[in-house]
Amino acid sequence: MTTFWSLWVIVLTLANLALVCWVLFANRKVAVDDQQEPGNQTTGHVYDGIEEYDNPLPRWWFLMFVGSLVFSAIYLVIYPGMGNFKGVSGWTSVGELNRDQEKAMEKFDETFGKFAEMPIEEIAQNRDALKMGARIFANNCSVCHGADGGGNYGFPNLTDSDWLYGGSPEKILETLYKGRQGLMPPQGPIIGEEGVRNTAEYVLSLNGLEHNAEMAAAGKKVFGQVCMACHGMDAKGNQALGAPNLTDNIWLYGSSREQIQHTIRGGRSNQMPAQDDKLRDDKIRLVAAYVYSLSRQEEVEQ
Amino acid sequence: MSDLIPTREEQEGDGEVRYRMLYESEDKIYTRHIRGLYTRIRKYTGLPLLAAFFFIPWINIDGHQAVHFDLPERKFHILWATFGPQDGFLLAWILIMSAFALFAVTTWLGRVWCGFTCPQTVWTMMFMWAERVCQGDRAKRMKLDAAPMSAEKALRKSATYAIWIFIALATALAFVGYFYGIRDLVVDLATFDAHPQGVFWVGFFTLATFFNAGFMREQVCKYMCPYARFQSVMYDRDTLAVYYDARRGETRGPRKKGIDYKSEGMGDCIDCYWCVQVCPVDIDIRDGMQYECINCGLCVDACNSVMDKMAYPRGLIRFTSEDELETGKTNYLRPRLFGYAFVLVAMLALFTHQVATRSPIEAEVLRDRGARLYREYRGDIQNVYTVKINNMDQAAHEFRIRVEGKPGHEYSLRMPRQIYLEAGEIYAVPIRVSVPKEQLQDTKHDIDIIVEAVDKPELTDRHQTVFIGPKQ
């Protein structure tokens, strides 16, 4: 605050306190003595023949009033309230927040501490840990990956056994900590429109989907020249690069002819945000264990 | 503390301005002790209630305190039931019913709640008993207060305060015990291990009780209590309240016992002032009904005992109504009372039904709000739901979830292997419901999601939600 506004606040605050004191003491003036009951005074106001008494306050009420004035004065000395004056206690809301956060952290240490050293596979067997992991997942991950972890268009399914970067505890932790930057480079300019169409047919054929065999045969050549660098000769993908398996009929961007062509022609860019600056280490471990357990859930037919 | 700021006079302009006292302290009320019907009623209704207040926390049911308002856990244990935040509306209904009960009783019997069962009155009466035991009755207490300080006075006063503090402390412990857990509280306090907040509140309620029942007394009813303010609105001409029968009593005056006072034009009131001396709010009931009167009946007892001594008929001051004083009859059958009674009984019945049929399991279902309404996966249409299960039972259970939908659909579910909830736990379980695409006939159709405890299938809750698929 500038000095002006600081003074503005101080003057207003003190003026109000003074005003309240004045109101309390100024009311001692006796207006009119009551004609019928000489012991009582009235304010002199009469409405429809009803008069307003103006008798002294009860002592306890007066003491409470004075007490609150004294409280205000003491408060303004101890706590910030007078413009730029910080108060002698040095209290700030940020300081209180930090104290509360420290307390919360201590509580977290108590709750999560025992999982800091536990292997992920073991945490995934712990009922309470999975519940905590599920809650953290619901708060932080389910927006993209779905409440059940089943993924969405452009967001991988975490409940199947198909992993872009690997499903071992170490890999899951790595994904969570550092995030992932998935990139399928645009191939349109390199292999031309005909190449795009042919390759799309080949990818369709890999999954046993309806395709044009002639174009697919042409596409296979293009695949062997360009795509295999990442996706491998057998098109089973490469987890070191995050290149998906193209033979398992699991799709991040859809399996229609147009969608596949689009992916090949324009490429895809995708990002899993890093969580190490968002979540505490022990929370990340719990989420990792939960994700690890997701692909081990059971299907119930009814 | 002097209780007056001396008046002074000042000149202001040419008119004379006078100042008066800034505040005034209440006169202390010295009540005379009296025995009688209404004192007995108060005693025999008050003692069981007090006993209940003090001892209920010590009773354990199902391994927890009989009545325990566990705020940190957000659970209210009341006898065999446990209530959570989602039962807040029940609490609201209890409060609404209590308010209605107060309206009904006030319309019928005036401020009997104030006079007989209000804690402010009951505790004040306890404190007055302590005063009487240590300092004697009215005249003795007045003399003692007027006398200079002496060893005897100091002893009598401190004995009074000691009893007061004892009662106040017991009250505070019991009250805080309802929230803290009485056994823990007593043990923690004794071992100096109690939570600072617990210590603070015990101290706070001790002091509050001490000052309220010791010094504030009737001023709470006169200046602070909101009920006292609006109960007067519920009085009508047939409300039973303490009245002085002026027609019988006037002209008042002292007389010898047994003379024929009526021929001298006197009424039954002998102007002995007992009714004023016993009054805890220091009014003269013979001036007619006043807003301070709490219908405690002490003046009725006092007057009746005097009437007995004088061998006059009882009831010069009695519980009666304005109507009865004028026409000789109180009209009990009035629409107002019927209305209150009817509404009260109806609410009570509904409330009882609601509590009796409360399922200790509650499930809520939220459809997943993803980018798409449904997911297509290998010929199946999938919808994802979050099922929030609240286990309000006293025991832990394992749960299973089923789906009931339209015939001709094969629903398959995917969910965690084990859904196990501790007593009182709330847990959100994501489930995935899949239907083969070719079976879907509608873009959307209703399905029921059923949650039940594996070991106790009667603990169940079903929730209707909607399954959305591609446009048909």
TrEMBL record, chain A:
<dbReference type="GO" id="GO:0005886">
    <property type="term" value="C:plasma membrane"/>
</dbReference>
<dbReference type="InterPro" id="IPR032858">
    <property type="entry name" value="CcoP_N"/>
</dbReference>
<dbReference type="GO" id="GO:0006119">
    <property type="term" value="P:oxidative phosphorylation"/>
</dbReference>
<dbReference type="GO" id="GO:0005506">
    <property type="term" value="F:iron ion binding"/>
</dbReference>
<dbReference type="InterPro" id="IPR004678">
    <property type="entry name" value="Cyt_c_oxidase_cbb3_su3"/>
</dbReference>
<keyword id="KW-0479">Metal-binding</keyword>
<keyword id="KW-1133">Transmembrane helix</keyword>
<dbReference type="InterPro" id="IPR009056">
    <property type="entry name" value="Cyt_c-like_dom"/>
</dbReference>
<feature type="binding site" description="covalent">
    <location>
        <position position="230"/>
    </location>
    <ligand>
        <name>heme c 2</name>
    </ligand>
</feature>
<feature type="transmembrane region" description="Helical">
    <location>
        <begin position="7"/>
        <end position="25"/>
    </location>
</feature>
<feature type="binding site" description="axial binding residue">
    <location>
        <position position="184"/>
    </location>
    <ligand>
        <name>heme c 2</name>
    </ligand>
</feature>
<feature type="transmembrane region" description="Helical">
    <location>
        <begin position="60"/>
        <end position="79"/>
    </location>
</feature>
<keyword id="KW-0249">Electron transport</keyword>
<keyword id="KW-0375">Hydrogen ion transport</keyword>
<comment type="pathway">
    <text>Energy metabolism; oxidative phosphorylation.</text>
</comment>
<feature type="domain" description="Cytochrome c">
    <location>
        <begin position="214"/>
        <end position="295"/>
    </location>
</feature>
<comment type="subunit">
    <text>Component of the cbb3-type cytochrome c oxidase.</text>
</comment>
<dbReference type="GO" id="GO:0020037">
    <property type="term" value="F:heme binding"/>
</dbReference>
<feature type="binding site" description="axial binding residue">
    <location>
        <position position="231"/>
    </location>
    <ligand>
        <name>heme c 2</name>
    </ligand>
</feature>
<keyword id="KW-0812">Transmembrane</keyword>
<dbReference type="Pfam" id="PF14715">
    <property type="entry name" value="FixP_N"/>
</dbReference>
<dbReference type="Pfam" id="PF13442">
    <property type="entry name" value="Cytochrome_CBB3"/>
</dbReference>
TrEMBL record, chain B:
<dbReference type="InterPro" id="IPR009051">
    <property type="entry name" value="Helical_ferredxn"/>
</dbReference>
<dbReference type="GO" id="GO:0051539">
    <property type="term" value="F:4 iron, 4 sulfur cluster binding"/>
</dbReference>
<feature type="transmembrane region" description="Helical">
    <location>
        <begin position="159"/>
        <end position="179"/>
    </location>
</feature>
<dbReference type="InterPro" id="IPR032879">
    <property type="entry name" value="FixG_C"/>
</dbReference>
<dbReference type="InterPro" id="IPR013783">
    <property type="entry name" value="Ig-like_fold"/>
</dbReference>
<dbReference type="InterPro" id="IPR014116">
    <property type="entry name" value="Cyt_c_oxidase_cbb3_FixG"/>
</dbReference>
<keyword id="KW-0249">Electron transport</keyword>
<dbReference type="Pfam" id="PF11614">
    <property type="entry name" value="FixG_C"/>
</dbReference>
<dbReference type="Pfam" id="PF13746">
    <property type="entry name" value="Fer4_18"/>
</dbReference>
<feature type="domain" description="4Fe-4S ferredoxin-type">
    <location>
        <begin position="281"/>
        <end position="315"/>
    </location>
</feature>
<keyword id="KW-0472">Membrane</keyword>
<keyword id="KW-0004">4Fe-4S</keyword>
<keyword id="KW-0812">Transmembrane</keyword>
<feature type="transmembrane region" description="Helical">
    <location>
        <begin position="44"/>
        <end position="61"/>
    </location>
</feature>
<dbReference type="GO" id="GO:0005886">
    <property type="term" value="C:plasma membrane"/>
</dbReference>
<dbReference type="InterPro" id="IPR017896">
    <property type="entry name" value="4Fe4S_Fe-S-bd"/>
</dbReference>
<feature type="transmembrane region" description="Helical">
    <location>
        <begin position="199"/>
        <end position="216"/>
    </location>
</feature>
<dbReference type="InterPro" id="IPR051684">
    <property type="entry name" value="Electron_Trans/Redox"/>
</dbReference>
<keyword id="KW-0408">Iron</keyword>
<keyword id="KW-1133">Transmembrane helix</keyword>
<keyword id="KW-0813">Transport</keyword>
<feature type="transmembrane region" description="Helical">
    <location>
        <begin position="337"/>
        <end position="356"/>
    </location>
</feature>
